[in-house]
């Protein structure tokens, strides 16, 4: 039942974005963000003093929905303020923070529970929510002018989503981003068992290796910032895809051959680097032509990540706590499906677009 609370939180994070995104397109970024943060504070503190597990699961879902606003609206604000190369550079920073968080948070949680019970974790989250609310109140200006906001009702929002789902290139980048981020969830779920149960690492050494993959994502994001402007976003994106495929293939070979810890660690480190590269570039390319409905577009991108992550997380443990084979298969499958999505949905259309541009230039 307690494990179900994590699933409820992830569902809230995913589904909540589909609501918060359109609301931010209609009412601006700041107001929905402030309201959601107040809801986050209340639900977090309520989790600490909840009387039964059923109520705890419900509150975790509400907490997830409230937290989803921060994810989707921060990306929409970036689209409001930046475009082109500048947006790629800024999103690389934003992606680095959002992707590193799931890798760092278990260590942060362990630090809190070292001097408190699980109740202290939720009290800490409530205090963190208060801090963030203060930052939003006094440090964040509205980025979406009234004249640029979406007008209409529920049907209008559904039409906007329909427009996004019918855009093959947008859906291609959204799927690649979501599928590979699902690999991150598989990593988070699988490595505690692999490192500690199979290779008998101490909790302290596991924490160090686990945190190193957060560093890998940061390296990938920094690579994007450095080479943006020198290389096209498409070239950077394809390099990231190739790196994810090669590294995930190495992971699969290592686990099938019962390879060493160093082989698995180096392979997963490189896979994490590829996530840091692909994340910001795929977001920029997906959002490029959807500035007017940036909230809804960002919601689709975010929902895919958490929905697919909810699928991959339990799969890595289907063979028990002492087998790394499902982990290797899941990671490899995510990179393979990402490449298939790119070829089917993006490459063909992109090649045609480049041909049209060349023809116009020659004319």
From TrEMBL:
Pfam families: MFS_1. It is found in: Cell membrane. InterPro entries: Efflux_drug-R_Bcr/CmlA, MFS, MFS_dom, MFS_trans_sf, Sugar_transporter_CS. The keyword DNA-binding does not apply. This is Bcr/CflA family efflux transporter. Belongs to the major facilitator superfamily. Bcr/CmlA family. SUPFAM superfamilies: MFS general substrate transporter. NCBIfam families: efflux_Bcr_CflA. The keyword NAD does not apply. The chain crosses the membrane at residues 31-51, 57-78, 90-109, 115-140, 169-194, 206-224, 236-257, 263-287, 299-319, 325-345. CDD domains: MFS_MdfA_MDR_like. It comes from Paenibacillus aceris. Keywords: Cell membrane, Membrane, Transmembrane, Transmembrane helix, Transport. Residues 1-353 form the Major facilitator superfamily (MFS) profile domain. It is a multi-pass membrane protein.
């Amino acid at each position: 039942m307690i494990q179900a609370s994590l699933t409820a939180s992830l569902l809230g994070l995913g589904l909540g974005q589909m609501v918060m995104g359109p609301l931010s397109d209609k009412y601006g970024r700041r107001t929905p963000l402030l309201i959601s943060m107040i809801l986050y504070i209340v639900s977090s503190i309520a989790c600490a003093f909840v009387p039964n597990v059923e109520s705890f699961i419900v509150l975790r879902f509400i907490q997830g929905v409230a937290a989803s606003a921060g994810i989707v609206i921060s990306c929409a604000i970036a689209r409001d303020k930046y475009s082109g190369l500048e947006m790629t550079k800024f999103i690389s920073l934003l992606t680095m923070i959002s992707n590193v968080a799931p890798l760092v948070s278990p260590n942060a949680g362990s630090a809190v529970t070292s001097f408190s019970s699980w109740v202290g974790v939720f009290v800490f989250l409530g205090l963190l929510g208060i801090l963030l609310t203060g930052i939003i109140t006094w440090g964040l200006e509205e980025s979406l002018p009234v004249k640029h906001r979406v007008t209409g009702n529920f049907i209008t929002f559904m039409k906007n989503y329909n427009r996004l789902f019918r855009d093959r290139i947008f859906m291609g980048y959204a799927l690649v981003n979501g599928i590979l981020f699902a690999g991150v969830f598989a990593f988070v779920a699988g490595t505690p068992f692999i490192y500690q149960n199979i290779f008998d690492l101490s909790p302290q050494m596991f924490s160090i290796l686990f945190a190193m993959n957060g560093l890998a994502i940061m390296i990938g994001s920094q690579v994007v910032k450095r080479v943006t402007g020198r290389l096209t976003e498409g070239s950077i994106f394809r390099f990231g895809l190739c790196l994810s495929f090669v590294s995930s293939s190495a992971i699969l070979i290592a686990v099938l051959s019962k390879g060493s810890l160093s082989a698995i660690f180096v392979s997963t480190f490189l896979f994490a680097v590829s996530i840091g590269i692909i994340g910001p570039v795929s977001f920029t390319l997906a959002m490029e032509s959807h500035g007017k409905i940036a909230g809804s577009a960002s919601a689709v991108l975010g929902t895919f990540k958490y929905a697919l992550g909810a699928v991959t997380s339990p799969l890595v443990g289907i063979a028990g706590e002492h087998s790394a084979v499902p982990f290797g298969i899941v990671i490899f499958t995510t990179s393979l499906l990402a490449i298939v999505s790119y070829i089917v949905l993006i490459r063909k259309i992109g090649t045609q677009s480049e041909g049209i541009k060349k023809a116009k230039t020659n004319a």
